[in-house]
């Protein structure tokens, strides 16, 4: 039986995690206040593009957001993985004609999310105000990113380490690219990903020593494109820089706990991983998927509110830990020139290249997450290979 009064929640932080969390909570019948000290223009302006996975597609579809994003989504059907130090070692991931991922620019994503948040019944959007709203709520969901002050105020540590690598991102015009293909190249200084954006444009996510990232960021266009040419997979050439490169430090961090009392940490407030494999935002949104399931159960009167943060934290830490461990292992294994590691790398990539079931398994883990999430309140099952309706929902 549904609760007589809708439960209330403060979502602090209106980045991609906070906005989607607010929309999921309001869809479950909660009264939501979404607050961010940054104004809408600053929230939408960040220069980034995300590689989205199947778990993300299911979440956004279930929330009715996918359709609105379709004109801006660039699907890719092939992912070509290669190891610079292993010469010919290459692995091609694909699922026939089906998309295995989508690339999406930050701006259209945030434009849509902020529009939906502004117009959703039961959602109060407070942007550009440095003061946190003071009204008491039944639950606090902190989506404040890696520098979360609320996490510190809750006395929750954020242990982990900074990589010696930074990550430089930019958009370029590409020549020689096979359509609908993404590339991940392991290079001794760090991985480099090339993500298609359509019309021959691509997002480059180029990891390397922080000093090298800063140096490259300061190069003029011609010198930058020359440096990039040496790092791109064979056959690819960047002919034009479409936006100035930006770089940011990368880290591996996991909060000591994901909930305390009536508060919980969602997205990068709770964890941060290396961009290799494009897991970051997808992992954040898997937090939202579980929060949505738990919030729907509370709103339906199936569970007390007090149980929500504890259940959320219990269900989220394994996925976060495994994803962080997997990305960290890739960096330790592949971002070096260590001769003793070369045979191991050749063996791993060779096994993947030869074994279709192994490739399917690796793709499924990267695309749906290492832990099945089950059926979402909207009826899609993000654990099924292409996000079909869950059997549970079909029966209903
Ligand atoms: C410079 C940079 C470039 C990146 N580029 C890419 C990329 O190209 N591709 C990719 O996949 N990933 C990229 N990432 C990572 C990606 O941005 C994160 O995975 C993603 O933004 C996490 O979303 P989030 O909503 O959890 O956190 P954030 O996006 O960090 O959002 C947190 C929000 O909380 C707000 N906030 C902070 N403090 C408070 C407070 N006290 N109260 C209320 N609100 C608060 C902030 O204003 C912000 O809007 C990049 C990260 C950075 C830093």
Descriptive notes:
This protein has 396 residues and is an alpha/beta fold. The chain has a domain at 8-73 and 105-161 and 251-339 and 369-395: FAD/NAD(P)-binding domain (3-Layer(bba) Sandwich). Helix content is 37%, strand content 26%. The protein contains 13 helices and 18 strands. It has helices at 16-27, 40-45, 54-62, 66-69, 106-119, 149-153, 210-217, 221-231, 280-299, 307-334, 342-354, 356-368, 391-395; strands at 8-12, 31-36, 49-52, 74-76, 78-83, 90-94, 101-105, 123-127, 139-142, 160-175, 181-186, 192-198, 201-209, 237-241, 246-254, 259-260, 263-265, 271-272. The strands form three sheets. Strands 5, 6, 10, 11, 12, 13, 14, 15 and 18 form a nine-stranded mixed beta sheet that branches. Strands 8-2-1-9-17-16 form a six-stranded mixed beta sheet. Strands 3-7-4 form a three-stranded antiparallel beta sheet. Strand 11 (181-186) and strand 12 (192-198) form a beta hairpin. The two termini are 17 Å apart. Residues 385-396 have low confidence and may be disordered. The structure holds flavin-adenine dinucleotide (FAD).
Short synopsis of the structure:
By secondary structure, this protein is α/β, with parallel strands linked by helices. Helices cover 37% and strands 26% of the residues. It has a domain at 8-73 and 105-161 and 251-339 and 369-395: 3-Layer(bba) Sandwich (FAD/NAD(P)-binding domain), CATH 3.50.50.
Approximate helicity band: 25-40%
Could you give me the name of the CATH homologous superfamily of one domain? FAD/NAD(P)-binding domain
CATH topology name of one domain: FAD/NAD(P)-binding domain
Task: Give the C-alpha Rg.
Answer: 21 Å
Q: What's the shape? A: globular
Bound molecules: flavin-adenine dinucleotide
Roughly what is the average pLDDT, rounded to an integer? 91
- What is the rounded distance between the termini? 17 Å
Major pleated sheet: 9 strands, mixed
- Which CATH class of one domain? Alpha Beta
- What is the second-level CATH architecture of one domain? 3-Layer(bba) Sandwich
Strand content: 25-35%
Number of helices: 13
Instruction: Tally the beta strands.
Output: 18
Structural class: alpha/beta
Uncertain residue ranges:
385-396
């Amino acid at each position: 039986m549904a609760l007589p009064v809708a439960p209330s929640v403060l979502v602090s932080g209106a980045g991609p995690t906070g906005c989607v969390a607010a929309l999921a909570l309001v869809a479950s019948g909660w009264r939501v206040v979404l607050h961010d000290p940054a104004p809408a223009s600053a929230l939408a302006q960040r220069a980034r593009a995300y590689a989205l996975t199947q778990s993300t597609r299911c979440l956004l579809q279930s929330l009715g957001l996918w359709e609105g994003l379709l004109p801006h989504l660039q699907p890719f059907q092939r992912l070509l993985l290669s190891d610079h130090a292993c010469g010919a070692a290459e692995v091609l991931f694909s699922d026939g004609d089906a998309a295995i991922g989508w690339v999406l620019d930050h701006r259209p994503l945030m434009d849509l999310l902020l529009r939906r948040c502004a117009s959703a019944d039961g959602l109060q959007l407070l942007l550009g105000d440095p003061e946190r709203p003071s009204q008491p709520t039944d639950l606090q969901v902190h989506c404040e990113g890696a520098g979360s002050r609320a996490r510190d105020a809750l006395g929750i540590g954020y242990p982990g380490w900074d990589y010696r690598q930074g990550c430089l991102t930019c958009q370029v015009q590409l020549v020689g690219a096979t359509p609908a293909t993404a590339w991940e190249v392991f290079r001794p200084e760090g991985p480099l990903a090339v993500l298609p954006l359509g019309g021959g444009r691509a997002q480059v996510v180029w990891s390397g020593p922080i000093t090298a990232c800063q140096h490259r960021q300061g190069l003029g266009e011609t010198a930058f494109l020359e440096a990039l040419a040496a790092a791109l997979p064979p056959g690819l050439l960047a002919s034009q820089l479409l936006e100035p490169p930006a770089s940011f430090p990368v880290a591996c961090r996991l909060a000591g706990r994901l909930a305390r009392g009536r508060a919980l940490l969602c997205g990068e407030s709770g964890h941060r991983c290396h961009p290799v494999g494009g897991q970051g935002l997808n992992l954040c949104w898997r937090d939202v998927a579980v929060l949505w399931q738990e919030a729907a159960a509370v709103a339906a009167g199936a569970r007390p509110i007090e149980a929500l943060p504890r259940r959320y934290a219990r269900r989220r830490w394994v996925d976060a830990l495994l994803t962080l461990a997997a990305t960290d292992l890739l960096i330790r294994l592949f971002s070096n020139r260590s001769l003793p590691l070369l045979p191991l790398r050749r063996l791993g990539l060779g096994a993947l290249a030869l074994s279709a079931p192994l490739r399917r398994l690796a793709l499924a883990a990267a695309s749906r997450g290492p832990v099945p999430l089950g059926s979402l309140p909207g009826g899609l099952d993000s654990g099924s290979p292409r996000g079909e309706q869950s059997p549970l929902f079909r029966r209903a």
